Amino acid sequence: QVQLVESGGGSVQAGGSLRLSCAASGSLFRINAMGWYRQAPGKQRELVARIISGGSTTYADSVKGRFTISRDNAKNTVYLQMNSLEPEDTAVYYCNGAITSTARATSVYWGQGTQVTVSS
Q1: Per residue in 76-113, pLDDT tens?
Q2: Most-buried pick from 13, 80, 104, 113 (CB within 10 A)?
Q3: What 8-state DSSP symbol labels residue 65?
């Protein structure tokens, strides 16, 4: 069993910053990729940022230059540093991981979600 636990959401004024964390735990063999998605009310869930095992990163155009994804392999944790936040960034942010378990099964796992609210 693999779990992803997020933390760090909250409310901030436009222009402010937040850092999200997502820790993977359980029967981990290999973390292949981890990322952050978000879903605003009435909208589809969308990719925000992703980092693969080799370290390459991908960002949504809307967050490039403002958000940074990073990881701590020793802690099995991925971070999303969000700067220059805009009201349009308001959403529930979900951690996502493509993880191989100790049973050598690879699956996609999701965290429970954390609310980010940016006021103007």
Answers
A1: 999 999 999 999 999 999 999 999 999 999 999 999 99
A2: 80
A3: T
